[in-house]
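Human: You know discrete backbone vocabularies at least as well as I do. Show me how you would write down a chain together with its backbone fold. No explanation is needed for now; the record alone will do.

Assistant:
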Amino acid sequence: MIDSHAHLNEIEDVEGALARARAAGITGIVAVGMEVASNRATLELHHRYPDLVYPAMGYHPWRLTPEGIEENLVFIKEHLSQCVALGEVGLDYQAKVKKKLQQEVLAKLLEIAARENRPVILHTRFSQPRALRMVKEAGIGKAVFHWYSGSLEVLEEIVAADYFISATPAAAYSPPHQAALEAAPLSHIIMETDAPVVYQEMISEPADLLVTARELSRIKRIELSQVIETTTANARSFFKIF
């Protein structure tokens, strides 16, 4: 299995977490960044665990500051070629950062991804329609709407554009997330943990991808083995991890 989205730099015992992930059958983890410091940390983790950790580099709307934009964009321009994806990036219309500024920065990030021909991992809280429009306009070939919990109408457009959504352990209890996973074809779903996010008082780690897999199997009414086989193949193709 491949955990397509984890903040490994935020995990306290990362060495232990990676050992437990291997034991659980995790063969790849896409480590996402949120700003220069975490981007640098994901690259370091990839160098330490090249057969398990695959770096993605991003600039999260939560970390966006006017004075930090240039430094982050320059770092990503210089290092994205070493990564399997751009991410985590996107829009968050519940964040305090002005929407216009978020959109301007995301547009610049998508330009970099298009130039480097990298897939994009998108955070789109309360902003899915605009984010979808922006990735289309930027000519992004591959995008995944991380932890999708938006409308089913926009989900139809995401699938029609041949983009993906990701399933998380929140599939155990979140009705909007469950509805999206039920509606989306398995061919357009990849799995993740978003570790170390807390799910119902459980601090997650990559080994908890088994929770995601079991819940997705339940929601889709498909055998667990088929869920694992298909979503792993999806992730390998999406990130070019072979």
